[in-house]
Amino acid sequence: MNNTLFDLSGKVAVVTGGNGGIGLGMARGLADAGAAVAVIGRNESKSASAVDDLRRRGVKAIAVATDVTDGSAVSAMIERVVRELGGINILVNNAGMSIRKPPHELEIEEWRKVIDTNLTSAFVCSKAAYPALKASRSGKVINIGSMMSIFGASFAPAYAASKGGIVQYTRACATAWAADNIQVNAILPGWVDTDLTRAARQQVAGLHERVLARTPAARWGAGSDFAGIAVFLASAASDFVTGTAIPIDGGYSIMG
Ligand code: NDP
């Protein structure tokens, strides 16, 4: 095994939604592999404690309070990361949210909020980071999809549309930016115990047990389950991997 294959020393990662849940799990993995990390989120106290956690792992870390649905705030955030950390090698488009309603009850403002947060943000952040990723000569973009990129979801129409869109957007960027040596891949998480799913777990009768019954690994995922795949997709180990959408789901998606 070549020990440098997964080494991210000297690299800079931007992780949107890096202050909790899956994003923090990935940020910790990237930091443990040596990357400096910029934590992007709106909640400044959560971001400050994520930064403390990452610094304790021996890397540089900064928090940049940003709403990823605000294009000019995203441009300013990318400029600040380049100025303070020296460039961008890795962009993780992870910020996301959901509104639980069937298609006939969802309001247009709710649709827009979910699409803006989950899908348009990936476009805005990727476009803003592209010059820095290109300048790095070995850029990596990791977009976070979902099981709802694959399966129908009667309870989350905008969420499913945004996550389906993430996979196609990933393929478009992978094709467009291959010549710049930027690899672009998607991760499709299964059911993970985070703030995003906690309310559904409490409100939807039987959901917790149904997920356990359908998941071959027989457990919910944790943020820490995403550290390894983030390091792989951010490192030289994945230099010939692009345009993929990789389920990280304990086997959920292979069950009929
Ligand atoms: P969390 O609710 O724990 O984290 C969501 C993160 O996104 C937070 O850090 C939040 O930070 C950030 N965020 C949300 N909206 C914005 C915004 N407008 N601007 C900036 N940051 C924002 O959820 P998860 O960790 O579960 O979700 C992470 C990703 O994984 C999402 O894309 C989600 O769709 C996806 N996913 C999750 C699954 C699960 O089972 N949990 C399953 C499949 C996919 P802040 O509030 O500070 O802004």
TrEMBL record:
InterPro entries in UniProt: KR_dom, NAD(P)-bd_dom_sf, SDR_fam
Keyword Ligase: no
Chain coiled-coil ranges: none
Segments forming domain Ketoreductase: 11-185
Keyword Manganese: no
Keywords: Oxidoreductase
PANTHER family (UniProt xref): 3-OXOACYL-[ACYL-CARRIER-PROTEIN] REDUCTASE, SHORT-CHAIN DEHYDROGENASES/REDUCTASES FAMILY MEMBER
Family (UniProt): Belongs to the short-chain dehydrogenases/reductases (SDR) family.
Listed name of the protein: SDR family oxidoreductase
